[in-house]
Amino acid sequence: MKALVCGLALITVQSVAAQAAEVKVFSGGGFRSVVTELAPMFERATGHKVIAIFDSNDGFERRIKQGESFDVLLIGTPTFVVLGDKIAPAPRVVVGRAGLGVAVRSGAARPDISSADALKRALLAANSVSFVGDGLSGVLFRTLIERLGIAEPMKPKLKPTETANVVKAVANGEADLAVHVMPGILAERGVDVIGPVPAEVQSYIDLTAGLSAAAPEPDAGKALITFLRSDAAVSVIRAKGW
Distance (Å, rounded) from C-alpha 222 to C-alpha 123? Predict the structure, then answer.
């Protein structure tokens, strides 16, 4: 009997191992803290391994159009329209929504951004402002300063930065303010969150999960997308500011 139990256990382990896959995930940088926490949970639940790569919307658009292989895309919804049939029509789910926020270096004076006029004064008073130069949150920021009527005077103050470094630039003293999606700010150390952009000039990014039309591991990819809508995953996503 003992030998039979051990044999069955071995068969089960071998079966799980045979079904396990590496899921290659292309994720926007603003979702890094979420993916980092959720990946081990998904791996324990399914036996699959998550290989996460982080970049901007524009960066992934280039990589996918050049034929780079992946299974799941986690990115701002507009990019799915641009990529067309590179992404399977289903499954696709919106997994989060986030607005822009403003941060300063830890311990620095916090300017008033409680209204559109106050935010305008704060941006104009800063010597430099970091933002994502190649990505959707950067597009929203440029639209923001245009709506505030300060696009021209802000030009010498702008510090376009890679997604991974936009908040670090403030923490390191390279910029006075960072304007980025709130989850991206909350995930970084060395900065204080002043708050979200005022509602009257706020813009939001919807984050969608979709499957590559040429996914090497479509079943594992679908399993990950389903997992992102589970109660456990949604709890983490909300806790990270989405």
Answer: 43
